[in-house]
Structure formats: structure tokens, C-alpha cells
Amino acid sequence: MEHEKIILVADSITVGELAETLNLPVTTLIGELFKNGIVSTINQRIDFETATIIVEELGLDVQLEKKPKAASVERKAYVLSDKAVDRPPIVAVMGHVDHGKTSLLDAVLGTKTVEGEAGGITQHISAYQVVRNNRTITLLDTPGHEAFAALRQHGATLTDVVVIVVAADDGVKPQTIEAIRFAREANAKIVVAINKIDKETANAQLVKTQLATEHKLNPEEWGGDVVMVEVSAKTGQNIDKLLDLVLLVADLEELKADIDVPTEGLVIESHMETGRGSVVGLLVEQGELKPGSFLVAGTSYGKVRTLHDFEGKPRWEERRVGERVESGGCWNIK
């Protein structure tokens, strides 16, 4: 008796790819999936376990095995030259749902950043910039719903400082704890913004006690090393103080970047836009990005046609490190 043929497949595979691998008509595979209660299309992905069950149901003389995962390639730490210049701090704003982190950004920027989001909850990582004392701060607004925990973690790894927003009338919540963990894993400095102090039920001291005793975030006024600021996104109280302290914390890190080097950066998000094609939100880490430049991210590449700032205004001049730009014309960079 001949041994079963062994076919290596990834953790997930499209219906079309599996049909081609098994040398079957795709309609046969779709029909078998339908019999098992799975309505699919040729481009729909199915996991390894589902693919294995379907192969068994079809009675094929093959055995599926998972492809070994490629070893992850660690990104080499960039070594600054002696010509490195100061760069804007990159600050992620995190917090529990309804604790007012996006409202806090509204107060900082003087805009309504949450408009258009489902239920008033941030669903995408968005980047903004604000100028304080002639210095630029790049702000990342990270998703605040548990369903977007992975995106929020991605946001933390991009940042120098994490502002964790905690409502003074609600205290530490699950997503607050999650944000603290993400910030620590990213080795980012933590600043706590105790929001909603304008409310009658606000108790900032209780919040500080929770953070100090349960999460080892000791406020400076208690002899610790964590900056905590009592703010109100509604009234604007202490917003300027928060920005000043963020800059102070960033100064201690002596953040610098090189300008005259090939551009490197991180893709924050990407989407297709009618009339513009692929639009990619980028955060430049080193070098300068210019129209006409070619970008490569993974297996995707494209040419920068236009640059726009976070307000959507065209920017034709060079974009320096730490700034968030959108480059129209880049193909589906992720």
C-alpha cells in the first residue's frame, strides 16, 4: 500500500489555493465546505484544521501538514551618527473605553477626532501633531475597544511616551491594566492623565492609590518616578501642563534621529480611497520622505505621489523624522 501523499500548507489558505494544491475543481471544494456548514468563496481563507477535515471528507489520499514557520527576523537597532538631530517625541494615548482619551486629544488639538467612529470609539490608529512652546509632539490615538487590542499593542511599540488616561470617577479598569502592560513591554515612559476631575464624583487620590499599590506606578509627589497630571478634557484644565510634562519626560530620553540617511519608518495603517488609490499612514523614523520616493514594506512597494499632513493638507516639502505623513499611490502597504 502506498503511503499517503504529504502536502505542506500554511496555518491558513484560501479556498482557491487549496483546490489548486489538491488538483481539484474549486467548485468541488466550495460544495464540500457548504455541506459542512461553511459558505465560502474562492478567495476566502480557511484554517488548517478546516482544510484537514475537508480533505478527510473528500476521501483524498493525501495528508496535510503545517509548513514550518520561518524564523522571525529581528529588526537591528539603528545606531545614530554624530550628526543626529533632535526629533519630536512620539506619544501614544491609551486608556479604558469611556475614560475620555479621545476627548483629551480633542482638547489638545481643538478638533473632534472621534467623529465618524462607530459608537464614538476609536477603531483605527490615528496620528496627529501639536506644537507646544515651538516644539512638535506627535500623538497616536490608539483603539479603545477590547476588539482592537492587537492594534493598540502595535501603537505602543511605536512610541517613546505612553499617556495612560484614567477617569477620576471610575478608577483603574481592565483596559487601563492592559495599556500599562503594553507600555512596559514597549519600554516606553509612562505619564498618567487623570481625566474628568471636573466631575463631582472625581477622586484622583483613589486613582493614584490604585496605580501605586496594585500596579507599581508611584506618583512623583509620593516619592515615585511616574508623572501624574489631573486634567479635564471638558474644561481644558491642565492640558498645557500635561503637554509640558510630556516634553520634559521626552527630554530625559534625548530623542534624536538622522536626516541625511535613507528613509526608514513604520506603517501605521493603510486603506484604499476612491480617486487616490492606496493611501498609507506612515511614521518616519530616520531620514526624510519626499514625493517621488519609492517605498518598500514587506513584499509591497510603491511610489510616493503626494504627501499630506494629519489634517489632509498637501505638503510638498520634505517631511522630517517623527512626523506622520500619508503617501498616496503606495500599494496596500501593511
Q: Mind telling me which CATH architecture of the largest domain this is?
A: 3-Layer(aba) Sandwich
Order of helices and strands: EEHHEHEEEHEEHEHEHEHEEEEEE
Question: How many beta-strand runs?
Answer: 17
Helices, by number, come to: 8
Instruction: Report the average pLDDT across residues.
Output: 77
**How many distinct domains?**
3
Based on secondary structure, the structural category is: alpha/beta
CATH class of the largest domain: Alpha Beta
Topology, element by element:
Elements: E1 5-9, E2 12-14, H1 15-22, H2 26-35, E3 45-47, H3 48-58, E4 62-66, E5 85-86, E6 90-95, H4 101-109, E7 126-132, E8 135-141, H5 149-157, E9 161-167, H6 174-185, E10 189-195, H7 204-215, E11 227-230, H8 239-253, E12 256-257, E13 264-273, E14 277-286, E15 294-297, E16 300-308, E17 324-330
Parallel strand pairs: 1-4, 6-8, 6-9, 9-10, 10-11
Antiparallel strand pairs: 2-3, 5-12, 7-8, 13-14, 14-17, 15-16, 16-17
Could you explain the architecture of this structure?
- This protein has 334 residues and is an alpha/beta fold.
- The protein folds into 3 domains: 5-66, Arc Repressor Mutant, subunit A (Orthogonal Bundle), CATH 1.10.10; 85-256, P-loop containing nucleotide triphosphate hydrolases (Rossmann fold, 3-Layer(aba) Sandwich), CATH 3.40.50; 264-330, Elongation Factor Tu (Ef-tu), domain 3 (Beta Barrel).
- The chain is built from 8 helices and 17 strands.
- Helix 5 (149-157) runs parallel beside helix 6.
- The two termini are 47 Å apart.
- Mean pLDDT is 77; it is low at 112-124, 144-152 and 326-334.
